[in-house]
Amino acid sequence: MLIRFKKSFEKIAMGLLSFMPAEKDLKQLQQTIKQYETAEDWQLFLWKQDEDIIGAIGVIFNGENTVEVQHISVNPSHRGQGIGKQMVNALKEMYKHKTVIPNHETEAFFEKCLDTDNC
């Protein structure tokens, strides 16, 4: 289930986002989290399964009709189970009147999801 990021989940969110290649640097990661906390057009969602948060998906709203996925990450111990695809599908359902697209960082994942059932 997708839940909205809140400050109390900051360490978990930072841990998940740190798996993204562009977020390896701590200062960059801290800036990214700050953007999600303060920018109105940035939104971070966390994936909660049972009682654990095991994934994160971050978007930026481009205009009125486009939601761009800029971050997507799943805890390594839960990869290969379709969690990423579930997050993307939940996001598409949440914003069904908008177009959900990847950015250059998440494009390969989106293509993999289209090609297989195991992303």
TrEMBL record:
* Protein name stated in the entry: Riboflavin biosynthesis RibT protein
What keywords is this UniProt entry annotated with?
Acyltransferase, Transferase
Presence of the UniProt keyword Plastid in the record:
no
* Family annotation (CDD domains): NAT_SF (cd04301)
Q: Where is the N-acetyltransferase domain?
A: 3-119
One of its Pfam families is Acetyltransf_1
Q: Which PROSITE patterns match?
A: GNAT
Q: Does the keyword Transferase apply?
A: yes
Question: Gene3D superfamilies from the xrefs?
Answer: 3.40.630.30
